[in-house]
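Sharing a chain and its predicted structure for anyone who wants a worked example. Both blocks are below, sequence first, tokens second.
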Amino acid sequence: MLPEHGKPVPELLAELTAARSADLPVGGGKVTAYVYDTGLPEVHEAARRAYLELLDVNMLDPTVFPSMVALEREVVAAAAELLGRPGAPGIFTSGGTESIMLAVKAARDARPEARRIVLPVTAHPAFHKAAHYLGLEVVPVPVDPETFRASVPDVEAAVDERTALVVASAPSYPQGVVDPVTEIAAIAAAKGVLCHVDACVGGWLLPWLREAGADIPPFDLSVPGVTSISCDLHKYGYAPKGASVVLFADPALRRKAYFASAAWPGYPIVNATAQSSRSAGPLAGAWATLRALGRAGYLELAHRTLEATRRLVKGVSEIPGLRVLGTPEASLVAIAGSPEVDVFVLAEEARRLGWYLQPQLSYAGIPANVHVTVTGVTLSGVDAMLEAIASAAEAARRRGPAPVPEGLPELVASLDLDAIGDAEFAELAASVGIDLRSLGEGRSAAVDALLDALDPRTREAVLVRFLSALYS
């Protein structure tokens, strides 16, 4: 509620501190998703100060605030140099979803007669979101059941004259593996189709891992046939949210991502991104982070991240009932369970121990698992993480699988969810033992188990209702 009179700053800050009391920590490495920590407080402090310096600068009009043009040129140039084509044109965006949205828009506008996007089933849902917003059709292709990389023959069979864009991931988020970019890009080029590499996670990680000694396959703009690539700086660039870059092989394709309108009596509009007004704070934060770390800093973080990932993979393989899915090239590790160890219960038990492991549902033959994003700070706590995972696995073994009441998935699938109000939905959830208020306290195994038992479309409908009820 809006107060009758303004409150003093100390009181407001105290309220914010109280509001965050139930939040998980953003630093330290115990939250293994959503946040990226170098373990270097001085770097993050530099980013915060730079962020605040340009907080009030509006990126809507580059002629009014030339500082943001200069900073964006530097940030885009750094990404282009790292990703195989120095000088490549690009756009600074708010995150991976917006970078992907712009790449899809550019492809759509470059080939307006083509209305399909061909992508592996492991590609990020941001492509589905972009297709939904932009009126395109997604054509999913399978991945190898052992390596989890996109099937090249299936990609080739799916690409035709109706295809606007072919997608490869470097890496795919679910298992941290790099798709065969060289082969997929060659197929796209041979058929006159654009090819986007989603390197939102790996763009600012894989080059440094390669330099640190990891075997990283070709994936960037140096690969013939790759026409655009996305790279998040707020992931392994360690910049504040939201900071990402989308690069294009040539300026003409970048121009297809832009939007302009002069069909009204106001000021002329030209946008590089999906947003119009936006703060330059994230841009300044990203610029400061890149300069505060430099090449040596990122290489050192890569060495630490690589060592932590190897120790995590080895340690998980020694815990009874657990296994790592695939052979991750990036520092993303998916841990599957067994009939004796339910991964949803494992995640809940790990949360009790102060660790957040991200649950991932089964899909397209890929089993349910928990996901760990290894960052620069993880190495200092990897042994403690393995101890927590082992303890959580043992607790999950004792508890058994998360129960799903008999007939509940079928009942949920049969409901007309649009006819149920948010309060009614919360009551319905409570009647089967799901308290939406407890989800923020880590008690989500029952919800995950129910979602896993549903088909993807029903999952999506239920997730929308969960979100709506949570905010109501």
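Comments welcome. The CA atoms of residues 214 and 329 lie 8 Å apart.
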